[in-house]
């Protein structure tokens, strides 16, 4: 019985390794995905991988360098919440991807 369990675990381990190697690693994506057009607004949407220390406002300032002095914080937060309904804009997870608006 012990031997059967060991064989079953070994087969399960081999299947898991094969699946991981054949599908690939999902976290090897680019930090920024191609821009997508938002149909109902005056901004485009991009997906950004968050690093340690990033906040919604710091990422927005990096992406909207030309308009960084004219950005409306309440609008940024509302748009971020709309694009990421399950995310907390005050506690972003490092190495997670979030959608951000890029204003025109």
Q: In total, how many beta strands?
A: 3
Order of helices and strands: HEEHHE
CATH topology of the domain at 36-103, anyone? Membrane-bound Lytic Murein Transglycosylase D, Chain A
Helix count from the secondary structure assignment: 3
The backbone outline, from C-alpha atoms, is rod-shaped
Reported for the largest beta sheet, the result is:
3 strands, antiparallel
CATH architecture classification of the domain at 36-103: Roll
- Cα gyration radius (Å): 20 Å
Strand content: 15-25%
Across the major sheet, the strand order is 1-2-3
Alpha-carbon distance between the two ends? 67 Å
SSE class: alpha+beta
CATH class of the domain at 36-103: Alpha Beta
Protein name: LysM domain-containing protein
Write out key terms for the chains shown.
104 residues; alpha+beta; Membrane-bound Lytic Murein Transglycosylase D, Chain A; three-stranded antiparallel beta sheet; rod-shaped; LysM domain-containing protein
Give a quick rundown of the structure.
This protein is of the alpha+beta class and 104 residues long. Helix content is 39%, strand content 15%. Strands 1-2-3 form a three-stranded antiparallel beta sheet.
Description:
This is LysM domain-containing protein. It comes from Oceanobacillus zhaokaii. The protein contains three helices and three strands. The protein is of the alpha+beta class. It has a domain of 68 residues: Roll (Membrane-bound Lytic Murein Transglycosylase D, Chain A). A hairpin with a 5-residue loop joins strand 1 and strand 2. The longest helix has 22 residues.
């Amino acid at each position: 019985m012990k031997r059967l369990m060991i064989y079953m675990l070994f087969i399960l381990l081999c299947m898991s390794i094969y699946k991981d190697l054949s599908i690939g690693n999902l976290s090897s994506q680019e930090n920024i995905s191609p821009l997508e057009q938002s149909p109902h607004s005056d901004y485009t949407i991009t997906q950004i991988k968050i690093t340690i220390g990033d906040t919604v406002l710091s990422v927005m300032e990096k992406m909207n360098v030309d308009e960084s002095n004219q950005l409306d914080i309440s609008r940024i937060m509302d748009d971020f919440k709309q694009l990421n309904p399950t995310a907390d804009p005050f506690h972003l997870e490092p190495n997670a991807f979030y959608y951000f608006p890029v204003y025109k």
